[in-house]
What we know:
The chain is an alpha+beta fold. It has one domain. It is 13% helix and 31% strand.
Amino acid sequence: MTRAPLLAALLLLAGCGDAPxxxxxxxxxxxxxxxxxxxxxxxxxxxxxxDACEVITxxxxxxxDCIADPAKHTITTALRSSxxxxxxxxxxxxxxxxxxxxxxxxxxxxxxxxxxxxxYYVQNSDRLQTLNRAGGPGNFxxxxxxxxxxxxxxxxxxxxxxxxxxxSDRPEFGTQSGPMLVIDGRIHPEISENGPSRLLRNAVGVDxxxxxxxxxxQGPISFGVIARLFRDRLKTPNALFLDGSVSSLWDPVADRMxxxxxxxxxxxxxxxxxxxx
Length: 277
C-alpha cells in the first residue's frame, strides 16, 4: 500500500469515532460539571422549565392564557416585602424572593393609591383586608363582584355574596375584585355583548378540571369578549375580572415582565418541587 492510500484509510477510520458529523459542536462534560477545556458547563434545564402560558385567539382577539395546574403548581398572593413596603412591581417581588420558582404571575385585584387592596385579601392564611360588600362607583362595585381564593390544590371563584354565605374557613390565599364576568355559567347581567369601553384586561377562572386560567388580552378589548372567552372557550363556570389598563403578566420562561404601571396585590403561581429520582 502506498503512503497516500494508507493516510486516507487512517483518516476514514478516525471519522468512524464519536466526533460529530455536523450541527452543533459537542461539549463533553466531566462529572465535576466542567467541560474538557475547563469551562463551567451550563446547567441542564430543570424538569419544571416549561411555559405555562400560551397565546390563543378568540373572536379575532389574541390573549395569553396561563394555566395553573394543581398537579404542577401552587398559588399564593403577594403584597408587601419583608420590610412592609408594597412591591408595586414584579421586579420588586423577584428581588425580594430570589429563590422562588415562579411559573408566572399576574396583578390580582383592585387597589388604592398606595397599592393596598380595597377588598378581601388573604396572604399565607393571614387576612389583611376584610370582605368588601359596600356599594360604590367603578368596576369593583359593579355587582356582583367576587373573590378568587383557595387552599392547597383547590382553587375557586365565587361571587361575593355566595362567598360570604358559604365560606366559613379562611383560605390560604384570597383576593377580591370585580365585576364577575361569568356567574354559574351565565355572563354578568350588566355586561353588554360588546360595550364601547376598550382596555387591556386580565381575569381568572377555574375550569371543571380544577385548573385556574389566568388570561390577559394582547390589546384593548370589551368586557363582553373576555366574558365569552371564559364561558365558551375555557369553560369556566365562574370567572372574575382582575383589572384593566394596568393589567400585567410576568412569564419568566418567555422572558416577559410587564412594567406598564405600579401594581397592587400580585397572584404568584409557583412550580411544585419535584422529588429527585
